[in-house]
Amino acid sequence: MENLPSYVNVVFTLTTFLTIFLFYRATRKSTLSLGIIFIWLSFQSVMGMVGFYTVTDSTPPRFLLLIGPPLLFIIALFFSRSGRAFLDTLDIKALTLLHIVRVPVEIVLFWLFMHECVPELMTFEGRNFDILSGLTAPLVYYFGFIKKRLNNKILILWNLACLALLFNIVLNAVLSAPSPFQKFAFDQPNIAVLYFPFVWLPCCIVPLVLLSHLTTLRQLVHRKGEIKT
Questions:
Q1: Range of the domain at 88
Q2: For the chain: N or C, fewer Cβ within 10 A?
Q3: Would residue 157 count as lying in a domain?
Q4: Residue 175 carries which DSSP code?
Q5: Residue 221 belongs to some domain of the structure
Q6: In this structure, is residue 165 part of a structural domain?
Q7: Would you state the pLDDT for residue 43?
């Protein structure tokens, strides 16, 4: 990772902060949400810098500390009354636009592959087609929320399709990371996410993208039910 060009780190860092900014806008500028995100980001930054995640033979895998807490937090939001109330205040127009960050993420992953930090299967030349979500997000935002030419059904289908693409790359990323659960990419494992700043991908960007889809789907389904009644 020492020989990685500086522009890769810069682009990824800017992408992370763009993700946070767009989510901050979706929360209608909630300083509490922003504070929680930056505390979590700071904690994971320290863990990445000290090499905590480079120990890959522990049981359970240390990598779970990157993805476990955000997933549990998301589950808590959907299963608690106050959490659902918060989710219903989020601006799904901003959450839809947030998915544009998946384009620079895919570009960074390709650069990381070129420098032997992630396997090819994690790029758009392999099994990762998540860039399609980022490329179509501005169109869905414009025609769905500005021009209002896309109905709820189309918006729901788009979110479900993008969610499937997200699950695909997350599954491939986890199973190609060096750990007791690794199943493929042994010749070039997914090592980038074990180091700062790329620990931000599984601990921040992916959870915010996931939360954006789930929240949007929740609001669209409820809105569809209200229209029917």
A1: 6-228
A2: C
A3: yes
A4: H
A5: yes
A6: yes
A7: 97
For tokens 């501005």, name the residue.
138
Number of structural domains, the chain? 1
pTM, entire model: 0.94
Q: What is the DSSP letter of 204?
A: I
Dihedral, CA atoms, 168, 172, 173, 175, nearest 10 degrees?
Answer: 140
DSSP labels for 91-102? -HHHHHHHGGGH
Does any domain span residue 1? Answer: no
Give the number of other CB atoms < 10 A from CB of residue 184: 12
d(C-alpha 204, C-alpha 144), whole Å: 26
Three-state SS for 125? coil
Question: What's the DSSP call for residue 145?
Answer: I
For 12-31, write each residue's pLDDT tens digit.
999 999 999 999 999 999 99
Residues 195 and 32: beta-carbon distance below 8 Å = no
- pLDDT tens, residue by residue, 136-173: 999 999 999 999 999 999 999 999 999 999 999 999 99
